[in-house]
């Protein structure tokens, strides 16, 4: 979900540092509000399968997002991007002033093209208004009378939930979602209507199709579609997939995920592969990663490369260190670390399928100095710290390799158990990546009580047009 429907770009050339953005044009020669919006217009046209045209907006009509108010997902989509970045810099400066000096703060790394960046697009399906039956069915004006009265077909709603509600907003012209993924969502809806497949009614717990989740490999172009259904039995599944792939030939795999619970959680536990291998591959920082429907994968691949390269640079591997990749997901950061100077990597994550993918990723990238463990990161660190204490070690592993801790917890941040164990293990450096600076600041304040200092704070704009900020903090012993 991250680039405009046509050609993909690779690498970290999409970053643009924004320090003091007041006055003057950005160095990338096109970040004026007008240029930004023109790119938005092109993204919209790509979403519709049309060619970008610079003259499109001649005479006014700048391409602001038409559903920004109702949708609420992109709180700042109609503000110039440079202003958004400046506001994020200010927020970071204010928040981190509690735990770091101003010399630690670095300007946010933004995108050159902050549109169509989301590589994961998800849509619920729900019953809409009853549709009028076609004229022939109504038997009017010579039309053939149907053999039995057919119930009026209902329309099917898809798009995004309006912020804080379960009201679906049609976001078929989204500015931040990948255009191909969006096309798949529309095709699923249309095939449901054609095949008479009922959308899920969350109030009644009835109907069949709950969600579609589409993931696009940024560099590979592979596309995984997960159809979340309210029952295991999927009559006509083969025909459905055939039609879907006919309409969207870029789809490489389709998975059915079964979720029969009345819950807001999108995915259930059980799955079956309907078409293709059941996963996609994508490339990050020169390595290839396997992504399945349940595994965590960053939604902005262009900025993920920027994020990872910054994190690895801050970790300053010399070829001798043992990196702990805590909250590792599919092992992406750890494997990049292994390929960029870490002597040994140990990753831990609580999702079994992510660890399965991480091990597979290590194998097919030929990385043999990384191991991955399923478990709670706090418990894992506690056990590791206890073992080190019993052996009288601090700061090094059993082979005397200096420990470096890479951590990337979910929005809730880390647990006290984890942080206490981190203090006990005494790594040379901690590189803490976070998608929630509030909980990160809380955790950094905790570490500071035990003699750690925040040396660097590097924000990266992973979610342009939204309030979300991603930050990397480098922490070392004072
Ligand atoms: C923000 S993601 C980071 C994933 C990975 N580092 C990446 O960049 O793709 C957070 C990860 O933490 C995992 N997680 C959440 N709570 C956990 C816990 N208590 N113990 C271990 N892993 C946890 C999730 O499964 C998810 O993969």
- The CATH topology of the largest domain corresponds to Rossmann fold
Q: Please state the second-level CATH architecture of the largest domain.
A: 3-Layer(aba) Sandwich
Which structural category do the helix and sheet elements fall into? alpha/beta
Most strands sheet: 7 strands, mixed
> At the fourth CATH level, what is the homologous superfamily of the largest domain?
Vaccinia Virus protein VP39
Beta-strand residue fraction = 15-25%
Number of helices: 12
Shape: globular
How far apart the termini lie comes to: 41 Å
Q: State the strand order across the main sheet.
A: 15-14-13-16-17-19-18
> How large, in whole angstroms, is the Cα Rg?
24 Å
Number of domains: 2
GO molecular function, one term: rRNA (uridine-C5-)-methyltransferase activity
Region (Disordered): 1-60, 121-153
Keywords: Methyltransferase, S-adenosyl-L-methionine, Transferase
Binding site for S-adenosyl-L-methionine: 298, 327, 349, 408
Q: What would you note in describing this structure?
A:
The protein has helices at residues 33-47, 68-71, 81-96, 135-138, 179-195, 237-247, 301-315, 332-339, 352-364, 377-390, 416-425, 437-448; strands at residues 15-18, 108-111, 120-130, 154-158, 160-161, 168-169, 209-216, 223-229, 253-258, 270-275, 280-284, 287-291, 322-326, 344-349, 370-374, 403-407, 429-434, 452-460, 470-477. It contains twelve helices and 19 strands. The chain has two domains: 9-52 and 60-113 and 297-478, 3-Layer(aba) Sandwich (Rossmann fold), CATH 3.40.50; 120-283, Beta Barrel (OB fold (Dihydrolipoamide Acetyltransferase, E2P)), CATH 2.40.50.1070. Strand 14 (344-349), helix 9 and strand 15 (370-374) form a beta-alpha-beta unit. The chain has a seven-stranded mixed sheet, with helices on both faces. Strands 4-3-7-8-9-10 form a six-stranded mixed sheet, with helices on one face. Helix 1 (33-47) packs parallel to helix 5 and helix 10 packs parallel to helix 11 (416-425). It is globular. The chain is of the alpha/beta class and 478 residues long. It starts with 14 loop residues before the first strand and ends with a strand. Mean pLDDT is 85; it is low at 1-33, 46-63 and 137-151. S-adenosylmethionine (SAM) binds at residues 296-298, 327-329, 332-333, 348-351, 354, 376-377, 408-410, 435. S-adenosylmethionine (SAM) is lined by residues 296-298, 327-329, 332-333, 348-351, 354, 376-377, 408-410, 435. The active site is at residue 435. Pfam families: tRNA_U5-meth_tr. Residues 1-60, 121-153 are annotated as: Disordered. S-adenosyl-L-methionine binds at residues 298, 327, 349, 408. One of its GO terms (molecular function) is rRNA (uridine-C5-)-methyltransferase activity.
